[in-house]
């Protein structure tokens, strides 16, 4: 097996579950660092900033700098900039989304918007959803940071951003452009940020429908770990298998 020159690594369900680090996550990243192999944490979670995610990982003993992180909020803000620089955005989300939009030079607005973008919002209200629906009906471009219908936490699987986005879709009859995994938009941005190509980069994740399909769709090799959303029992019925799979990350350490 030829060693990979870079790694794209999921967070929720791969590095941690909620606020609890998963077994061998630290050892996995430590070995990458020791071998001077570049890695990028790629998450569909839009709620935190790069700095907040890096601080969370460091608190768990997992090596991370802000530049080692790419979120769907950052990828969405970059995509909007490609469509309309300095766009007026109606945003539903948390710190990560608002921070990314502002850093890309977009304006947060309440009406007459160019774009409606929705990310995870634990303070979601009926009024926020109503305003988003009205703006979409008036012609605003409709984006969603990701389509995850659940997110793994220490309590179990909780509603994800895809479930929240569906309210706007059903109400307006319009489907959003999804930015996060398994879409190609965020994978292209991840490889650009790493500065590596598909053939030399391995994607590591726990969720078949987002992480693994993102790698498959991008033409990348994938490593599936059964510590999060997708259980091993589902493996035999998967339509396209990951390149490799392990029960826990320590099983991959000899291959780094």
Question: How would you summarize what this structure contains?
Answer:
This protein has eight helices and 15 strands. The protein has helices spanning 25-34, 50-59, 72-83, 95-103, 126-137, 161-172, 184-194, 208-218, and strands at 6-9, 16-17, 20-21, 39-43, 69-71, 88-92, 107-108, 115-118, 141-144, 150-153, 156-159, 177-178, 201-205, 221-225, 244-246. Its EC number is 3.1.3.-.
Q: Give the % helix.
A: 25-40%
Low-confidence spans: pLDDT under 50, at least 5 residues? Answer: none
Shape: globular
Q: What's the gyration radius in Å? A: 18 Å
CATH class of the largest domain: Alpha Beta
Describe the structure.
The protein is of the alpha/beta class. The protein has two domains: 6-71 and 181-255, Rossmann fold (3-Layer(aba) Sandwich); 84-178, 3-Layer(aba) Sandwich (Rossmann fold), CATH 3.40.50. The protein contains eight helices and 15 strands. Helix 3 (72-83) runs parallel beside helix 4 (95-103) and helix 5 crosses helix 6 (161-172). The protein is globular and about 55 Å long. The model has no long low-confidence stretch (mean pLDDT 95).
Topology:
Elements: E1 6-9, E2 16-17, E3 20-21, H1 25-34, E4 39-43, H2 50-59, E5 69-71, H3 72-83, E6 88-92, H4 95-103, E7 107-108, E8 115-118, H5 126-137, E9 141-144, E10 150-153, E11 156-159, H6 161-172, E12 177-178, H7 184-194, E13 201-205, H8 208-218, E14 221-225, E15 244-246
Parallel strand pairs: 1-4, 1-13, 4-5, 6-7, 6-8, 8-9, 9-12, 13-14, 14-15
Antiparallel strand pairs: 2-3, 10-11
